[in-house]
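FORM 7B: Structural annotation worksheet

SECTION A. Query
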Amino acid sequence: MITQKDCNIDYMSTVGERIKQRRKELKMSQVVLGKKCNVSHAAVGLWESGQNRIGGENLVKAAQALKTTPEWIINGDSKKSAEAADQKFIEWVMENIHYLNSDEKSDIETLISNAKDRGRIMNKYK
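SECTION B. Predicted structure
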């Protein structure tokens, strides 16, 4: 049986590095991330250093707080999916706006309005 050690993969530091990287990108302290996950800042430090494994409810809460997905935290897939999806959508709209009919343009306006409302509401609870 091949183990992570045999493959020279340090799973925990990779996970921890992603948590730390994303937290810093968002200019978030360990204290703030800990509060959003209902854990101490020390627990966040242990995740980031690879001394403690994140999982379950804490993984979901951390992903939400870091505006990413649990999959990205664990294995690097779907990095920052919410932001990436929004960016891809914006790029698609900008490239294709002249091809859209009036109903499609109306749908786009509704999506944009809903996104603004979502952002405004989410910011109230940060």
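SECTION C. Observations
Residues 102-124 form the longest helix (23 residues). The domain at 11-75 is CATH 1.10.260.40 (434 Repressor (Amino-terminal Domain)).

SECTION D. Sign-off
Analyst initials: ____
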